[in-house]
Amino acid sequence: GYELFKILLESNKFNLIYKPHPATGSLSDDVLQAHNNIKKLIEENPTQAIALEKIDINSVFLAVDIAVFDNSSVMIDFLAQDKPMLLTNRFKPHEEATKIATCCKMIDTTNYSDIVSIIENELSKDTYKTQRATIKRHYLGDYAAGESTQKFVDTVADIIQQGDEEIKRLEKNR
Predict the structure, then answer these.
(1) 65: closest CA among 101, 119, 18, 104?
(2) Within 13 A of 108's CA, how many CA atoms are on the CB side?
(3) Is residue 27 helix, strand or coil?
(4) What is the C-alpha to C-alpha distance for residues 144 and 2, in angstroms, rounded to an integer?
(5) Cβ neighbours of residue 56 under 8 Å, at least 6 residues apart?
(6) Is 106 helix (H, G, I), strand (E, B) or coil?
(7) 14 by DSSP, 3-state: which?
(8) For residue 55, what are the contacts with CB-CB under 8 A and spacing of at least 6?
(9) pLDDT tens digits for 6-36?
(10) Beta-carbon count within 10 A of 45 CB
(11) Which of 18, 31, 150, 160 could bond 51 through an S-S bridge, CB–CB 3.0 to 4.6 Å?
């Protein structure tokens, strides 16, 4: 994480938002050190990078053109944005990456030094758009922006109405 962040800052091509997990560094001193080093880089480059540690991750999604993740579970939520994303490969060589990893470029020890050109390529060509759409349908369904929220609201309203009707029916029978 630190090396990638440093390379991106030194390129002077991007504004960076660092949104760590709330528990970052709680299980590993090495991760905590990297986290603190990234925060120091941000302090040294306040016009190019910010840390958003207390803000909900979903609100950050709206502000970015591309996201770099080290955790695949958060990526599922990002799928709704239909924007390019990258995943740092934390998998051991004998482990298989998760299904969501098939819809984005993987960043690992063989290509992390090329992160700037990888991001530029994904921003201009979005090479995983088709795969991302397939994975989005798999995890989130085939909804346009706002449709799933409306479906949720409508379902809740129906359940409330059914409950009210049942309560009225019971009161009638007293």
Answers:
(1) 119
(2) 11
(3) coil
(4) 36
(5) none
(6) strand
(7) coil
(8) 19
(9) 999 999 999 999 999 888 889 999 999 999 9
(10) 16
(11) 18
